[in-house]
User: Fold these one by one.
Assistant:
Number 1:
Amino acid sequence: MKFFVDTAEISEIASLADSGLVDGVTTNPSLIAKSGRNFIEVVREIADLIHGPVSAEVVALDKDGMLREAEVLRKIARNVCIKLPLTLEGLKACKALSDEGVMTNVTLCFSANQALLAAKAGASFISPFIGRLDDISQDGMQLIEDIRHIYDNYEFKTEILAASVRHPVHVLQAAKIGADVATMPPSVIRALAMHPLTDKGLETFAADWLKSGQTII
Ligand code: E4P
């Protein structure tokens, strides 16, 4: 499973990049606004730090407007992935871009039928939003399972990018189902490494080692 980090905060991305655990980055207009930085500059800096796909989202609502914006975003770096909304206009833009070999991420997916359309439009990634479905009492993880089933039935190459991930259990469940990628906030990536028994075990080992009076170096 690939891990993408869902943020536009350069310092967070840089510190996680050192761990070797980050395969890509996703941004959206809200994350860019939260960063308070210039969109193009932030995407350029992220694309310098991370060699994998860096999703940059269009804001136009019509196909031609999306394609014009995609033209600008594509020029930022070779690893920029054009993020498009799951609307009919977004799907048309996705088809046009994928026909040209441009990497695309179709976002704001909330149903398996939407995901089916994105695959038919040649999307590189489909982003089903788990957390936002859970928020309205629908089962976000069931959506991941349904998409996996449909994509496997037809051998679609579109990668399932589990998005709107809120906590480590989302990552575990998405991995068990076979989502290709999970994009998550930096705090969730860090939380995956945590276990109280690891901390307790380390404390005991350190205390016992001290008693032994030995050193390794
Ligand atoms: C993914 O591409 C989105 O940026 C993100 O996962 C949305 O997450 P949220 O629902 O927590 O805002």
Number 2:
Amino acid sequence: MGNVTVIDHPMIQHKLTIMRNKETSIAGFRRLLREIAHLMCYEVTRDLQLEMVDIETPMTAMQSPMIKGKKLVFASILRAGNGLLDGMLDLVPAARVAHIGMYRDHETLEPVEYYFKAPSNLEDRLIIVVDPMLATANSATVAIDKLKALGANNIRFLCLLAAPEGIKRFTEHHPDVPVYTASIDSHLNDQGYIIPGLGDAGDRMYGTR
Ligand code: PRP
Ligand code: URA
């Protein structure tokens, strides 16, 4: 699968198994998603460019590396994206945040948009779009269309689980956007849920049905 990285670190896979378990509590699910976001954040930011800056330690002057360029943007597809967002912000507290509100219509599986707010200068920034679930990929595809329409040209997509059908659609529509996931599951069922999956991520995070 072309532009797709499966992050198969044992810590992530272990925590993901607990998240998939239907007996895991809401609090546990939320905590694990945040912890996995820390681990995945390392991988998705692994190749960021550094630049040397002048500083003074208590002992001497030195040049030392810092991340180059404008602040990163994390773009969260609401609601469930916020579970990954919180963990990403733990590691990169100065990141800017875009919120993209959309939910899937249960009949059509098309995203219904209800909110959009993004930082300025998207054309100069790396944007990491986060959503735990890539099912049909309708939501992620539309979300990234909107970011590109505002000038974004350096985008990565981070999810927890992906369906093969969603990866195919996403990579065909956005071949320039690398996908990072912890698992590519078996397939989508007739209702567009990922199998074996973990159920409805938003409901499991927030205790709704
Ligand atoms: C879930 C998930 C993705 C979307 C994935 O959100 O968080 O945004 O479904 O499905 P797709 O790839 O087929 O578009 P949902 O619509 O359930 O909204 P929620 O996060 O508010 O619960
Ligand atoms: N959205 C979810 O939350 N879970 C799925 O399996 C598919 C879409």
